[in-house]
Design a protein that fits this description.
- With 177 residues, the chain is an alpha/beta fold.
- 37% of the residues lie in helices and 18% in strands.
- α1 links the parallel β1 and β2.
- This is Glutathione-regulated potassium-efflux system ancillary protein KefG.
- Keywords: Oxidoreductase.
């Protein structure tokens, strides 16, 4: 399986959890890892280049922090520029149909903060509904996000356990087909 893995963190150098995960990703010819902020520091997303990558891929992963209950600005820009009608959705927009779509998300808050009774007043499932809808519009196969709660304070075993979960997911897919 060809996997396109986007890392989308505006301050990756200061994110221990995201940098740690990035270092653990397997080196494999069927896994392309792209740091969107490194690739497009001026937010000038190249739609043609991105669509070529998507056409190659069987699965799309997006590693990012949860920012204001959503994705970082550059990923939103990427959606706007790349996921166009006639390509990603609409009557003839079938380029992403059947591809796996999954987010790898880091949060500052703990899991209890993401409940109706919690600090953020909504579950993570509710907050991520727009991303699930985007994947659905593009006819992708939505997979539950892997969420690293309290990532800002994660060290040692907690950090390793989450990293292993992501790496195992990718490795299983890379060995598929």
């Amino acid at each position: 399986m060809n996997i396109l893995y986007y890392v989308v963190h505006p301050d990756l150098d200061h994110s221990n959890a995201n940098r740690s995960l990035l270092r653990k990703l397997p080196l494999h010819p069927q896994l392309k890892v792209i740091d969107l902020y490194d690739r497009y520091p001026s937010f000038s997303v190249n739609a043609v280049a991105e669509k070529e990558l998507i056409d190659w891929a069987d699965a799309l992963f997006f590693q990012h922090p949860l920012y204001w209950y959503s994705v970082p600005a550059l990923l939103k820009q990427w959606f706007e520029i790349v996921l166009t009608p006639g390509y990603a959705y609409g009557k003839e927009g079938t380029a992403l149909a059947g591809k796996r779509w999954q987010h790898i998300i880091s949060t500052g808050g703990n899991a209890n903060a993401y409940r109706s009774e919690g600090y953020n007043q909504y579950s993570m499932e509710e907050l991520l509904r727009p991303l699930e809808s985007t994947a659905g519009l593009c006819r992708c196969e939505w997979h539950e996000p892997l969420i690293h709660f309290s990532a800002k304070h994660a060290r040692g075993e907690q950090l390793n356990a989450f990293n292993d979960q992501v790496v195992n997911t990718l490795t299983d897919l890379l060995e598929t087909r």
